[in-house]
Amino acid sequence: MEPVNIIGAGLAGSEAAWQAARSGVPVILHEMRPATGTFAHKTGDCAEMVCSNSFRSDDDVMNAVGQLHWEMRAADGLIMAMADRHRLPAGGALAVDRDAFSQAVTEALRAEPLIEIREGEIGDLPAEGNWIVATGPLTSDRLAGSIRSLTGTEALAFFDAIAPIVHAETIDMSVAWEQSRYDKGETEAERRAYINCPMNRDEYETFIDALLAADKTEFREGETAGYFDGCLPIEVMAERGRETLRHGPMKPVGLTNAHKPDEKAHAVVQLRRDNALGTLYNIVGFQTKMKYGAQTEVFRMIPGLQNASFARLGGIHRNSFLNSPTLLDDRMRMRKHPNLRFAGQVTGVEGYVESAAMGLLAGRMAAAQARGDDLGPPPFTTAMGALVNHITGGAEAKTFQPMNVNFGLFPPLEEMRGGRKGRKDRYPAYTQRAKDDFRAWLATQ
Asked: Which family does it belong to (predicted)?
């Protein structure tokens, strides 16, 4: 049987390899790390989480991301299984110990007899065979050039920023306190999953001034700052208005200062646990393109972080993706070169979960092809189906930008049409329909 070849062992490539192998098809998983590294990756492990350690909401009734989690679990996804095994308290979110998670994914793939992991860079797209390209936002320059040559068009790009990580022991807990927003979570650990640093009005205004004045990373020649709105650097948000941050990642709602319960904070900086030991916390929503020296100076202005020691400072990198509506069919194949499938962020989905989900579908589709079958996508009433529909034709090609899964991609329920007040009824109806339709899709395989 012809093997499925996969380029890239990130979240999408790892999930694709797992799904294809579990379908009984041999897989060759090609990964250039650690021989050829990137500035953002620190290890040679599969499915290394570079930016955040969160898979976002795990609510499969009221949230489209949670519904995507549900679908991946229903399809026996490796990424969700390892995330569940190594999850950390994070309120209603699914956060993981990132090192333990990626190590577990790597071990599972190496233990699967139908998967061969080959180290080394693939620089040119093959003209024959059954291939999945899942190289992610840090596709090597050589392979990116091959993709541009083959597609006949320039890939689009935005800049993805990395949030800093703080050593927990250096956070001043006489100023900060532990609490999830609105005390969300079923256990005490979940309800205390975040560390909160309060600011009064003067502290906030001084922080904004410093943020706007700080030295920023320069872009390389030929690059432009086309940011994805879901991952804006904090200084870019601040440039859009002085109140933007306190209505975004620094919003004070749903939090009560344990040290001063009668005093309402003007803004709050939240930190989320980044490892199982609880020794590292990342600053939520604080992606940045400030230079390292400026980051240390500005972030130590945050009350509670005045003596903070940073395990990692923020960074910024180019994130390239295809104009998929013009290039890919609904089997995620290049229309003009159907031996090539694409999966993950390179297709124009945004987020860990979305990327892994596209890998799951690509792996199953490629395995079906290897067996002489054809597998279509799930109905676009499902979270996975809605994403595939968006990137392969549902989006406007002229304005195509990276997209997180959201209920706006789902076909409306006529009986549930209405404004914001209808969400408590509409969203459960969306997710119930998605579950029913996804089960039916799985049953056909």
From this structure: Belongs to the MnmG family. TrmFO subfamily.
CATH 2.40.30.260 boundaries in the chain? 162-317
The mean of the pLDDT values for the chain is 89
Q: In the chain, how long is the greatest CA-to-CA distance?
A: 69
Residue 99 CA to residue 27 CA, distance in Å, equals 24
The count of residues in the chain is: 445
Q: Which of 184, 204, 186 is closest to 194 using CA atoms?
A: 184
Determine the residue type at 147.
Answer: I
Give the integer Cα–Cα distance in Å for 79 and 356. Answer: 7
Paired with 276 in beta bridges are none
Is 422 known as a binding-site position?
no
| Neighbour-count burial of 73, counting CB atoms closer than 10 A to its CB (0-12 exposed, 13-18 middle, 19+ buried) | middle
Q: Report the relative pairing of strands 4-7 and 27-31 from DSSP bridges.
A: parallel
Cα–Cα distance list, 386 to 215, 243, 337, 344, 353 (Å)? 41, 34, 24, 15, 14
DSSP helix/strand/coil, 275: coil
How would you classify the pairing of strands 115-119 and 27-31?
parallel
Phi and psi angles of residue 240, each rounded to the nearest 5 degrees, phi first: -85, -5
Instruction: Look at residue 143 and tell me whether its pLDDT is greater than 90.
Output: no
**Helix (H) / strand (E) containing 296:** helix 292-299
Would the pTM count as exceeding 0.85? Answer: no
Q: Is 12 annotated as a binding residue?
A: yes
- pLDDT tens across 81-92, in order? 999 999 999 999
Model confidence at 289, in pLDDT bands (50, 70, 90)? confident
What are the residues whose beta carbons fall under 8 Å from the beta carbon of 316, sequence distance 6 or more? 159, 160, 161, 162, 217, 233, 287, 288, 289
Residue 222 pLDDT class (50, 70, 90 cuts): very low
- Asked if 162 and 287 touch (Cβ cutoff 8 Å), the reply is yes
The confidence score (pLDDT) of residue 317 equals: 64
Q: Which architecture characterizes domain 162-317 according to CATH?
A: Beta Barrel (2.40)
Considering the segment(s) 4-155+322-443 as one domain, its CATH architecture is 3-Layer(bba) Sandwich (3.50)
Q: According to the model, what pLDDT value does residue 120 have?
A: 85
Residues of the chain with CATH 3.50.50.60: 4-155+322-443
The contacts of residue 266 (CB under 8 Å, 6+ apart) are: 198, 199, 200, 201, 203, 204, 246, 252
> Which residue type occupies 426?
R
Does the annotation flag 315 for ligand binding? no
Question: What's the confidence (pLDDT) of residue 156?
Answer: 55
pLDDT for res 423 = 75
Task: Please tell me the predicted confidence (pLDDT) of residue 192.
Answer: 93
